[in-house]
């Protein structure tokens, strides 16, 4: 009787690594809801407030100089090696490669290229918005500051807002944006927020950014994530165009379309078989002649000296004319002759 095996957590994890038989019918695409519009408006207002506070050389600029003179990299020198490695989580190249590998697997598994297109759209928006803000405001960093207490704006720098912080918010936040379940979206949102917060504070610790640079970088990255639903129609059109182009290229080269993957069948336990008398099998004639059965002598094993000597049948040795056969008592005793 076959029964279903209880799947363990490891079995379920490996089952999710397999490719789905077809593209899911309902892929959760975030919409530009009223709640998201309110968050986008509040974040944009925060962004503009930070820029204005730096432009007018307000208390925020004085706080930037106080943190810079505090020199955290000298106060906590023991963690300098760790911060040097941790800040890599905000660099564009390594993070984009890692996230693109994960989203590439997601695209293969779900028969769609939307995850990769969404990542590309977010990085394009990041380069345009953050890059334009950096070049437009031209603020110098703490290591290149000229006048104590000034905002260092318009001097040819490129650190305002922080690119490391904005990139960490967008790159790791895109995983939460593309999550397939609400629970995964909440956990990934919390993880990306903590990661981007740590990357921003790492740049302040190393002295490569002002504190206001980090605040503006957080706002810039969050604005891109909140604005992604507006890009979804363009992403869908781009996906349709790319897939049509792929199909035309295959038909031109004569490559057959891939066969659909069959849907796996769930095995059910068999019903208990009804007990029946097995039919008797007919004897099969053997081609060989039957062997003579071997009979073992009953009783305990005897020593060789106690066994009765038996003359083997068909012996080739001729019998002596005057010697009785072996194993038979002598009929007449031979006279002893003295010599």
Write structural notes for this entry.
This protein is mainly alpha-helical. It contains 10 helices and no strands. The radius of gyration is 45 Å and the shape is globular. The termini are far apart.
What descriptors fit this protein?
single chain; mainly alpha; 10 helices
Q: Quick summary of this structure?
A:
This protein has 10 helices and no strands.
Strand proportion: under 5%
Mean pLDDT: 80
Question: From N to C, what is the helix and strand string?
Answer: HHHHHHHHHH
- Overall structural class, as computed from helix and strand content, comes to mainly alpha
Count of individual beta strands: 0
Tell me the distance between the termini. Answer: 94 Å
Main sheet characteristics? none
List the helices and strands and how they pair.
Elements: H1 9-17, H2 34-55, H3 59-70, H4 72-75, H5 80-86, H6 92-110, H7 114-137, H8 163-177, H9 182-206, H10 211-253
Helix pairs in contact: 2-10, 5-9, 6-7, 6-8, 7-8, 7-10, 8-9, 8-10, 9-10
């Amino acid at each position: 009787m076959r029964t279903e095996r209880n799947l363990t957590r490891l079995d379920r994890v490996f089952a999710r690594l397999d490719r789905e038989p077809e593209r899911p019918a309902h892929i959760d695409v975030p919409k530009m809801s009223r709640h998201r519009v309110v968050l986008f408006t509040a974040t944009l207002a925060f962004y503009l407030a930070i820029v204005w506070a730096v432009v007018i050389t307000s208390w925020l600029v004085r706080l930037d100089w106080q943190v810079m003179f505090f020199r955290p990299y000298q106060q906590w020198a023991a963690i300098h090696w760790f911060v040097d490695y941790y800040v890599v989580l905000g660099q564009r190249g390594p993070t984009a490669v890692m996230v693109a590998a994960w989203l590439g697997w997601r695209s293969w598994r779900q028969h769609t290229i939307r995850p990769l297109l969404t990542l590309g759209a977010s990085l394009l928006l990041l380069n345009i918005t953050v890059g334009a803000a950096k070049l437009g405001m031209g603020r110098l960093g703490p290591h290149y500051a000229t006048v104590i207490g000034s905002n260092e704006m318009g001097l040819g720098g490129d650190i305002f807002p922080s690119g490391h912080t904005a990139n960490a918010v967008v790159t790791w936040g895109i995983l939460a944006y593309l999550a397939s379940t609400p629970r995964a979206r909440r956990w990934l949102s919390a993880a990306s927020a903590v990661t981007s917060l740590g990357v921003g504070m790492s740049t302040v610790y190393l002295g490569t950014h002002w504190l206001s640079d980090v605040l503006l970088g957080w706002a810039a990255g969050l604005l891109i994530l909140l604005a992604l639903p507006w890009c979804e129609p363009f992403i869908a059109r781009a996906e349709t165009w790319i897939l049509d182009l792929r199909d035309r290229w295959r038909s031109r080269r004569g490559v057959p379309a891939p066969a659909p993957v069959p849907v796996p069948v769930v095995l059910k336990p068999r019903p208990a078989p009804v007990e029946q008398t097995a039919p008797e099998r007919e004897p099969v004639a053997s081609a060989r002649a039957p062997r003579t059965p071997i009979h073992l002598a009953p009783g305990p094993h005897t020593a060789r000296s106690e066994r009765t000597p038996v003359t083997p049948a068909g012996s080739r040795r001729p019998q002596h004319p005057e010697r009785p056969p072996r194993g038979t008592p002598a009929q007449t005793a031979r006279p002893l002759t003295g010599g």
